[in-house]
Amino acid sequence: MDSANSTGLSSNSYDIVSKEEGCSISVEADHETTCWGCGLRVLVSPYASVFKCGWCGAITKQNTLKCENQCFKWRRLRDRCFVSVVLLFMLFFICGGIWATYPVVFSISFILGVLHIIVAVILSISTLSTFCYAAFRPAGAPPTILWGSYPTVGKGGLENYTFCHYCSKPKSPRTHHCRSCGMCILDMDHHCPFIGNCVGAANHRGFILFLMSAVISMIYVTIMSSYVALHISRPLNHRQVSLLNGFANSELIFKTLKETILAFLRSAVFLSARGLVLVYLFIASVSVEIGLSVLLWQQLGYIYEGKTYLSHLSATDSEESAEKDCQNLVRFFGCPYVAAIYLPSFWKSRKSHKK
Questions:
Q1: So where does this one cross the membrane (predicted)?
Q2: Is residue 113 within a helix (H) or strand (E), and if so which, with residue range?
Q3: CA 279, 282, 287 angle in degrees (round to 5)?
Q4: Would you call 38 a catalytic residue per the annotation?
C-alpha cells in the first residue's frame, strides 16, 4: 500500500464557474502530498487547508508555519518572579499572622493559644506543600507514540492526532502546546503565571487542593485578625449614638457619623505595628479569599462537566459529549468507588450530552 485517499476524493479535476465572466475553467482538483503520521501519499484538494489521512487518521494542517517564540526567556523569568513573590507573600502571612495574634490569643486563654498555633501550622504546611506540588511538578507530557512510517503505524494508530510544529512530534486531541513552558501539555487547563507552571493532567489535582487550602487559610486569617483586633482596639465614644434612640433628625445623624469616622481615623493613626499588621492581614485576606473562591468555583464547575478550561472554550453545543455528573469529581480526586454510592442522586444532572 503506497497511498491513502483523504475524504473520498476520486476525481483529478473539476470545474470552477466564474460569477463575473460566466465561463467554466478546468482546474486540477487533486494533488499528491505525504502524510506526516504514516508517510503514505495522500491525494488532497489544493484548496483544502486541513485533511485527514484515510489510513492512520492523522490530521494535517497545510501552510502552518512555525512561529519563533522570541519572548520565551522573558516569560519564564516572569513566571519565576511571580512564584517568588507568591512564596514571600505566603511566608509573610504565616509569620506576620502568628506574630500579630499569638500574644493576644495566649493572654485570653492558653488552650486557645495552643489550638491557634496548631491550626495555623497545619494550614501553613498544607498550603505551602500543595503550592510547591502544583508549581514544581511537571504538568504532564503526552504519551510517546510511534509515527512517521507505514510499517510502524497501524490502521487508525494516530486517529485525530495533529502535528506540533514547535515540538516536532505528534499531538493528541487532548494535548495543547504552551508557548510559555515550551512543551506540549496533556489535558492542559491553563497556564498560571502565579505558580509559574501549566495546569495539566499531572498537577491539576494539586492545583485544586492548593486553592482549597488557600481559601480555608484566608478565611481563618480573616476571623483571627478580626477577633484579635477587637481586643486591642480602643473603645469608641458612643455618647452621641445613645441620643439616636429618641427623636433624631438628619443633622444629628450626620454629626454622629462624622464623630464615629473621626474616632476610627484617630485610632488608626496611633495604631501600633501589631495593629497595622492586623489591618493589612484583614484587608489582604478578604481580597485574596474572594478571588481564589471565584477561581475555585469555576474550576470545580469545569471538573463537574468533565472538561478543562481550554476544552470549554473550544467546545460547541454540537460537540459536547461529556456528562455532567458528580462521578467526574469523584474520579478527579481519586476517591474510592465505594464513596460514590453515598452521593445523593439529585446531584446528578438530568441533562446528558451524547455524541
A1: 82-102, 108-136, 207-232, 278-297
A2: helix 110-136
A3: 125
A4: no
The residue with cell 470549554 is 312
CA dihedral of residues 289, 295, 296, 300 (deg, nearest 10): 160
Catalytic residue among 56, 164, 184, 192: 192
Strands 24-28 vs 3-5: parallel, antiparallel or unpaired: unpaired
Q: What digits encode the pLDDT tens for the residues 187-239?
A: 889 899 889 899 998 899 999 999 999 999 999 999 988 888 777 765 544 44
Encode pLDDT of 260-269 as tens digits: 656 555 555 5
Structure confidence at residue 119 as a pLDDT band (50, 70, 90): very high
**Cell digits for 289?**
479569599
- What is the dihedral angle through the alpha carbons of 212, 214, 215, 218, rounded to the nearest 10 degrees? 160
Q: Best-predicted range by mean pLDDT among 53-67, 154-168, 195-209, 223-237?
A: 195-209
Tell the burial category of 177 from Cβ atoms under 10 Å away from its Cβ (0-12, 13-18, 19+). middle
For 66, 242, 299, 321, the CA distances from 167, given in Å and listed in that order, are 10, 74, 28, 29
- Asked if 2 and 43 touch (Cβ cutoff 8 Å), the reply is no
CA geometry: angle 313, 47, 4, nearest 5 deg: 90
> How many Å apart are CA 89 and CA 121, to the nearest integer?
16
- Distance between alpha carbon 291 and the CA centroid of its chain, in Å? 13
63-66 contacts: CB < 8 A, separation 24 or more? 64/165, 65/165, 66/165, 66/166
Domain boundaries, the chain: 1-64+148-186, 72-139+205-258+267-301
The CA distance from 76 to 294, in Å, is 26
Cell of 58: 492523522
Strands 50-52 and 41-44, bridge-based pairing: unpaired
Sequence-distant (≥ 6) Cβ neighbours of residue 315 within 8 angstroms: 307
